[in-house]
Amino acid sequence: xxxxxxKGGYNSTRVHMSRKQMILDGLKELKTEIALWQxxxxxxxxxxxxxxxxxxxxxxxxxxxxxxxxxxxxxxTDSDHGLGYSKxxxxxxxAGFGLFHGTLSDRVxxxxxxxxxGYANINSMRARKSFKRDSYHDWHPYNMLVMRIRGDxxxxxxxxxxxxxxxxxxxxxxxxxxxxxGGPYWQYVRIxxxxxxLGSKGRVQDKQCPISLEHVTSVGFTVDSRxxxxxxxxxxxxxxGCEFDPTHTERFAYEMYKQDKYIVGx
Length: 266
Prior knowledge:
Layout: H1 19-46, E1 58-63, E2 73-77, E3 87-92, E4 98-104, E5 119-124, E6 128-129, E7 133-134, E8 144-150, E9 155-161, E10 172-179, E11 187-192, E12 197-200, E13 203-204, E14 218-224, E15 231-243
Antiparallel strand pairs: 1-15, 2-5, 3-4, 4-15, 5-14, 6-7, 8-11, 8-15, 9-10, 9-14, 10-12, 12-13
GO cellular component, one term: mitochondrion
Pfam family, one: CIA30
Family: Belongs to the CIA30 family.
């Protein structure tokens, strides 16, 4: 019940710098952090929060139209950690949208450590404030995740991380499937947050609970090579947003069969 590392052991390739190099790199970041702090102060004095969430209106949280929009996203594959041979990239497409594409390979390294391989993933960086302070995306007024995408017919996995303070909560991620049609046409995806189920380190948890929308730390997409789906893949994304739908009243879609102890007959 104790987690040694927030990255689950994937920090082994991290370069350890000297204290002097850390100070020099920190000074280079100072200008950017001060500018971010000034923006936070400006927003505080303006104090212009959204007071009314109008039904049917999508508030865009991430859009992918310029290279700078991709700077807060990280693309990884099994080959980055020596666990396979898949390749992927996240870049601006010729049409001017975010393009997550690459090639999946289920070839396993001959090292005797793993049995299966073949995945690629993109993930937004942790929400933070100035001077490297951790923060959260507050999405609690919304109940719908809305996206405009163009896929290749594959099934992808949407990941919404809600990393907690304690170590046992570091890997809490909510998942739901993203089914793409393929072809040249765009599709609008609208998924209730109540449909997302809890997982940790890739395993669905026995005890489920609704997603904590005021503590969202990152959003991501995963594709893997299950069911002989190796080869090239492509997912083009215009934007990711949230919407409030007053007609959707479901809080959580999944029934827990293990009742609380104070319920009679359990």
